[in-house]
Amino acid sequence: MFNNIGHVLYHVLIILFPILFYHQFLNKGMTNVTKKVDYRFLLVLLIMLLLTMSFPIEVTNGSYYDQKIIPIILAFTYGGLVTGFAILISMLVYLFILGENGFMMMVINYMIIAVILCLCVKKFNSLALKNKVLIISGLFFMITITRTMRLLTLNHQDQIVVTIIVSLITWISLITVVLIIENLNMQMHLQHELQRSEKLKVVSELAASVAHEVRNPMTSTRGFLQLMSRDGNLNSSQQKYIEISISELDRAQTIIQDYLSLAKPNKQEFDRIDLSLEVENVIQLMNTYTNIQNITLRHAVEQTLYLKANKDEIKQVLINIIKNGIEAVGKEGVITVNVYRKEEEIFIEIADNGVGMSAAQMKKIGTPFYSTKDMGTGIGLTISFQIIELLKGKIDVKSEVGKGTTFTISLPILE
Asked: Is there a contact between 18 and 182 (Cβ–Cβ < 8 Å)?
């Protein structure tokens, strides 16, 4: 075993190098579980699997060991179910080609591992790093224990110590890869947030510097147009033109006010509010708008849900998102609002069956100057994201072209 320590280190390099290469040159975003397959990540894991299986470590005379469990665990936890089963099937096919002894036993063992990993995948992304490491370590040590028990039943006690040592090295490699992925994900997330903050800062400074100078002449112009509209000598066309001009000035005022909302920090104190009541008030307010558009607004609101927030800001967030959904579905669409408690958080789900968004559009949601609407500025959603972040909450957006969009707002509950 110790004579082959170099081969062990080669295996560690086989595991670490592809992950570093992927994040440095191939990855365009954070490595998280999604429904879509990241073919670059799949290819890297496949290469890692084939290399570790093609060059196994000879731990004793005639006894070989490899680290193929690492790409399988990474495939399920960071690539998703499709990627996981693709790597698992590739591994089994390669074992069959190599003529592995006890092939059926290997199939059963890895299918059990796959089932356990499938149960972990759904919640893995939302876990803290400590919990991720504990889950992966627990699974790996369970595999090590079963291997040790198998050696005992086969009367290969002389290989138990070596197996434990190699398993320990494999575990260290696995945890190192997990820490590298999580650290690189965190760096990319911070870089994304920094770029977003810089953009917001530029918008805020621009809004604060020009809003006052722009609003004064606009207010004067609107006043003169109102005076002109009272002139009895105007014909119907002239009156209509003045009304349109006043309407456009009001719209410009609203846009400027939105920019000022980004510029000024929130100095209002948060109060204890009944979110259930506020949601129902917003739904009642939006019902008038939806009835005109012949849109169905369904809702299910769990009662007596409290949080610490500003009442007006919460209303602003809800109105912005519901109004966007109404504009996305058009006539005879359906908007669904669900509010419920889950553990220590309140969830607000606002779903529509509208046009939906592509993956490229999803990445830009919440940034200033970006909107999927022809006449939109994107400021409304930017402010909504900012308000929820101040409340230590999170907005998750899921969308599919032609099937609609779902906004899920999670906020800490106030007992």
From this structure: no
* Contact partners, residue 157, CB within 8 Å, separation at least 6: 151
The runs of H, that is alpha helices, within 75-159 are 81-98, 103-124, 129-153
Burial classification of residue 99, based on how many CB atoms lie within 10 Å of its CB (0-12 exposed, 13-18 middle, 19 or more buried): exposed
Q: 């204890």: which residue's tokens?
A: 272
Helix (H, G, I), strand (E, B) or coil at 63: strand
Question: Angle 129-153/103-124 helices, nearest 10 degrees?
Answer: 160
Whether the Cβ atoms of residue 279 and residue 348 lie closer than 8 Å to each other: yes
d(CA 133, CA 311): 40
| Contact by Cβ (8 Å): 1, 20 | no
Q: CA nearest 75: which of 28, 31, 106, 107?
A: 31
The two structure tokens encoding residue 177: 């890869």
Grouping H, G, I as helix, E, B as strand and the rest as coil, residue 348 is: strand
DSSP reduced 3-state for 412: strand
Distance (Å, whole) CA 250 – CA 328 = 23
CA angle 306–312–314, rounded 5-degree value? 50
pLDDT tens-digit series, residues 256-310: 766 666 656 555 667 888 989 989 988 888 887 777 778 888 889 998 888 888 8
- Find the radius of gyration of the CA atoms of the chain: 29
What's the rounded Cα separation, in Å, for the pair 45 and 70? 9
Q: Could you state, in order of their start, the residue ranges of all structural domains in the chain?
A: 2-193, 202-263, 271-412
Compare 13 and 202 and report the one with higher pLDDT.
13
- Rounded CA separation 302/277 (Å): 10
Q: Would you give the DSSP letter of residue 328?
A: H
Calculated CA dihedral for residues 309, 315, 318, 323, nearest 10 degrees: -160
Question: pTM for the complete prediction?
Answer: 0.62
The answer to whether the CB of 305 falls within 8 A of the CB of 276 is yes
CA distances from 107 to 88, 130, 143, 308 (A): 10, 30, 14, 52
| 3-state class (DSSP) for residue 404 | strand
Could you give the CA distance from residue 31 to residue 125 in angstroms, rounded to a whole number? Answer: 10
Superfamily of domain 271-412: Histidine kinase-like ATPase, C-terminal domain (3.30.565.10)
Closest by Cα among 397, 394, 409 to 359: 397
Q: Phi and psi of 9, rounded to 5°?
A: -65, -35
